[in-house]
Design brief:
215 residues; mainly alpha; Fic-like fold; two-stranded antiparallel ribbon; 56% helix; globular
């Protein structure tokens, strides 16, 4: 049997927006924290974002990755825009590679910015590149049935607040959504795998967020 589709229901939009605001506040309140990255952390974000949503077609979809043992996840393919997410039987392997890559990059960034005074523009540039690359890779894998963009934006905020920066994608719907999608296209497309435009977009968003925060 084909797994049921999941698309955001209009009645769930206010719930999701409120949950994202609460998660934003939690992440923003932990600036400089060096919490280890884990896939369980992202699963918890996904569950928090969709808490109390009433129109999710399968409870297994919340906080769980495609390719998991549940019958609704084991064979679930997803299409986003012109792209097909990683096949379900390869999602686990792709996520292990993602986790290893991000953990290694964060270790180097942590070492270069041990204090807030070390978070200079030149040292933040590699952090922005890391954020853009892993944001795009998360979307390319598309490990959840729905809500991958939401969790990718939380991930971007989480990485940069680690280095004492403000949220670059606060709230729901996302800030400057049309330009974010356009900037992401070449990074998400595996045939180009070019995150330069997305990095520039995130740098601009960071400048705007810092200005709004008065820093």
């Amino acid at each position: 049997m084909r797994p049921p589709d999941w698309h955001e229901h209009p009645d769930d939009i206010p719930t999701i927006a409120n949950n994202v605001a609460l998660l934003d506040a939690k992440i923003s309140g932990a600036k400089g924290a060096r919490e280890p990255f884990s896939l369980e952390l992202v699963r918890s974000w996904h569950a928090e974002i969709h808490r109390d949503c009433r129109h999710v077609p399968s409870p297994a979809y919340v906080g769980n990755f495609r390719g998991s043992e549940h019958p609704h996840l084991a064979t679930c393919n997803v299409v986003f825009g012109p792209f097909l997410g990683t096949p379900p039987d390869r999602v686990g392997e792709a996520l292990r590679g993602f986790s290893l890559s991000l953990t290694q990059r964060l270790a180097r960034l942590d070492a270069s910015m041990p204090t807030s005074a070390d978070a200079t523009p030149s040292r933040l540039n590699p952090a922005l590149e890391c954020t853009a690359q892993h944001y795009a890779l998360w979307l390319r894998i598309h490990p959840f049935v729905d809500g991958n963009g939401r969790t990718a934006r939380v991930l971007a905020n989480w990485i940069l607040t680690r280095y004492w920066q403000p949220l670059i994608f606060p709230g729901r719907p996302p800030v400057d959504r049309a330009n974010l999608i356009a900037a992401s296209a070449a990074a998400v497309d595996p045939s180009t795998d070019d995150s330069s435009a997305l990095t520039r977009f995130m740098r601009r968003r960071l400048v705007e967020a810092r200005r709004a925060a008065g820093s």
